[in-house]
């Protein structure tokens, strides 16, 4: 049994679940790239993969972020090649894809179908779409991410596993192909598995709400955005947009280096604009 998740945090909680339930015993594999952002045109061929890698390198260069997931030895294409190899060698092997109601998981699911389509009948999906769970305080909640679910609650989630149908393996890749052709930068989940695409400036208006007239730490801006905004955005993307808007004379930045603890941002005043 091979389990696929779409973040390290999800892999950690799923491993805890496996420790509680031996019937789920198997390898946990993480798809590390976030396919809800960045270019995806021709993503399965060298040119498209190179364009995406270069985009990520530019985004991550804005802060002190790891580029490990872009390395040839550890990237998703190497990972999925190993999974496909296992499925080909062992016809009894089953693949379980775990996804929650968020853009990253759904985009990861779409990206993955290209590789698992030949194994129809051996690929299960556990899509925790708008399902209620009990949190640590005993209250009902609707998780957006797998890692928000307590490990013991996952024990009932496994009952939701179902085979990905032949129809889904035909229709869903077509939907992903449309998104690849449009090739915009931001993909947001509208409900179910429906995604809407937007330009790279999509978050800018929301970001501006958290930058004031006085300098404040980048870490504080990110924390405020992620705790108060209804539109989820990763830390790396936020920092990249903060620095891009600074280069476009919207914000002013002070501080040296890439450490988020050292840099600060504020709105550029009208006087500064005029000068």
From TrEMBL:
Question: In what residue span(s) does the DUF1835 domain sit?
Answer: 2-124
Q: Per UniProt, what is one Pfam family of this protein? A: DUF1835
Q: Which residues form the DUF3658 domain?
A: 159-262
Q: Which domain of life is it from?
A: Bacteria
Q: Which InterPro entries match?
A: DUF1835, DUF3658
Q: Write down what this protein is called.
A: DUF1835 domain-containing protein
What is the protein's species of origin?
Ferruginibacter yonginensis
């Amino acid at each position: 049994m091979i389990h696929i998740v779409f973040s390290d945090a999800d892999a950690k909680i799923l491993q805890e679940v496996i420790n509680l339930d031996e019937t789920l015993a198997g390898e946990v594999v993480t798809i590390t790239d976030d396919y809800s952002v960045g270019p995806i045109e021709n993503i399965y061929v060298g040119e498209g993969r190179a364009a995406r890698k270069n985009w990520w390198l530019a985004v991550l260069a804005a802060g002190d972020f790891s580029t490990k997931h872009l390395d040839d030895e550890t990237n998703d294409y190497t990972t999925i090649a190993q999974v496909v190899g296992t499925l080909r060698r062992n016809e009894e092997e089953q693949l379980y894809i775990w996804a929650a109601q968020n853009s990253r998981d759904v985009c990861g699911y779409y990206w993955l179908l290209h590789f698992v389509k030949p194994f129809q009948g051996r690929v299960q999906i556990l899509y925790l779409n708008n399902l209620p769970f009990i949190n640590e305080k005993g209250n009902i909640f609707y998780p957006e991410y797998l890692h928000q679910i307590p490990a013991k609650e996952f024990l009932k989630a496994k009952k939701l596993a179902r085979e990905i149908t032949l129809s889904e393996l035909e229709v869903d890749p077509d939907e992903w192909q449309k998104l690849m052709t449009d090739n915009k930068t931001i993909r947001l989940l509208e409900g179910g598995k429906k995604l809407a695409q937007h330009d790279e400036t999509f978050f800018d208006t929301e970001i501006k709400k958290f930058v004031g007239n006085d300098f404040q730490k980048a870490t504080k801006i990110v924390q405020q955005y992620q705790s108060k905004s209804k539109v989820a955005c990763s830390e790396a993307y936020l920092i990249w947009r903060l620095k891009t808007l600074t280069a476009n004379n919207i914000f002013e930045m002070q501080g040296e280096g890439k450490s988020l603890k050292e840099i600060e941002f504020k709105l550029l005043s009208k006087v500064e604009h005029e000068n």
